[in-house]
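Reopening this ticket.

The earlier resolution said the output was attached, but the attachment link was broken on my side. Pasting everything inline this time so it's all in one place.
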Amino acid sequence: MDESEAVTGGCFCGRVRYEARGFPRRASYCHCSFCRRTSGAPAEVAVELEAGTLRWTADEPRYFRTSPFGERGFCGDCGSRLIWRLADGSGEDYANVSVGSLDRPEDVRPAFHQCVESRLPWYRIDDDLPRLTTEELPQLMALRRAAGFD
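Inline output:
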């Protein structure tokens, strides 16, 4: 489960493409308001990337800062949301890609739900995956504290 695998993907129109090593067997559903608003969905599923492995194979995305510590990359032509990364300059050292942007999203197996305290009340979770609050995610809590959230 902790072995990275080669992943490829890109945007809807094909202008932005990437390859990397990721962890598709430990993808997560995120219920935070940032992920909901930027994905246009009640939760987003994302695959964490192995640090230093992301390579853009066509055009690179445009970025929009969505929190004090994170930014999301999207295609400047079709608008597809592709990546979340740190906004502090370390970029892809801690990043994830949207499952919908993968060439083989069917290979993904979500491992948990995160930020469940922000889950929309009508969104029903029908699986037995672990449900973690933001406070139960040490790396996310460290980013929030550094940004002055706590």
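Reporter confirms the inline version is readable. The chain has a mean pLDDT of 91. The helical segments are 33-39, 138-146.
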